[in-house]
Sequence to fold (162 residues):
Amino acid sequence: MERHDLAWAAGFFDGEGWANRSGRGVQARINQAGPDDVPEVLLKFQRAVGVGRIKGPQIRERRQPLYYWHATSRSDIARLAELIGPWICRVKYAELTRTLATRLPNPLWPAARHEELAWAGGFFDGEGCTYLEKHRTHPNFFVPRLYVPQTSDRGIARSFFV
Fold:
């Protein structure tokens, strides 16, 4: 697999994924809603990492069908960590380390520019959105916006607007 695709997958996992121990072992998951079928980003992620399964839809009243990529074997999650570990953020790095109870490959940051851009694309695919906002002083004019909301337990998390 191309490093560019793995950097994208790391960004997507940073935005949407999680890993943890469960009563039955370990698991990692990425949720995505899709009105028609399995969201393309889940298929792209699975192709990039080559492990896990896509499940769903889970149907809930007044919600879009929920699909998810899911890995429950230690070997699949270890492979995931091996592939995307160099690019993931510190929080997900620690999460995967705790889940697997082992050290991961050292992060590459700063990575090659094209890999950082691929990571940012994956993160935006997971967390970002685009929309038109009414211009505050010019009626019938709109301003394009990119938005990436974030929260933090420690420090200041910022929502990024462009």
